[in-house]
Amino acid sequence: MSTKAEEVSVPAVATLTRDEIRAALLGKTPDAKSVLITVFGVALELKQPSLGSIMDTRENDDAKARAADMIVKYAYVPGTNDLVFEDTDREMILRWPFGEDLLALQQAITDLTGLDIDSAMEDLRENPLAE
Q1: Which is it for the CA torsion 25, 29, 33, 39, positive or negative?
Q2: How many whole angstroms separate alpha carbon 20 and alpha carbon 16?
Q3: Residues 96, 64: contact at Cβ < 8 Å?
Q4: What fold, for 32-126?
Q5: What are the pLDDT digits (tens) for 8-50?
């Protein structure tokens, strides 16, 4: 076993100072990705959640509540910053029939977040104590 430090090659990019990097990354919130989707014949715009929103959702251990929470927090009136749903809509959302519309909605959320919900649930079933 070697204790020699490995060299890491860094791709050639414009070299920025610390202040320039901070200004570029912290000076304004980057635009979130979004996708238009039709659910039960109604157009919605799903917007990419923030890191904080993802972490808040992750803290909820109830899978049903977590699924409804994502719909409530990520669904907007198309072309606006107006959320479609309110916290009080969760119960009604959970009554929606599960089929291709909700599968498409789940896939759109997966695409926007980079989270594979099915894979994460399978991992949880296989190793429930892992973080």
Answers
A1: positive
A2: 6
A3: no
A4: rbstp2171 (3.30.2220)
A5: 665 656 789 999 999 988 988 888 899 999 999 999 999 998 8
pTM (predicted TM-score):
0.70
* Segments making up each domain of the chain, as ranges: 32-126
Contact present, 115 and 57 (Cβ < 8 Å): no
- CA dist 125 and 119 (Å) reads 10
What pLDDT score does 10 carry? Answer: 57
Q: Judging by beta carbons within 10 Å of its beta carbon (0-12, 13-18, 19+), is residue 86 exposed, middle or buried? A: exposed
Q: How many CB atoms lie within 10 A of CB 130?
A: 7
Q: What is the DSSP string of the chain?
A: ---PPPP----------HHHHHHHHHSSPPPPPEEEEEETTEEEEEEPPPHHHHHHHHT---HHHHHHHHHHHHEE-TTSS-BS--GGGHHHHTTSPPSHHHHHHHHHHHHHH---HHHHHHHHHH-TT--
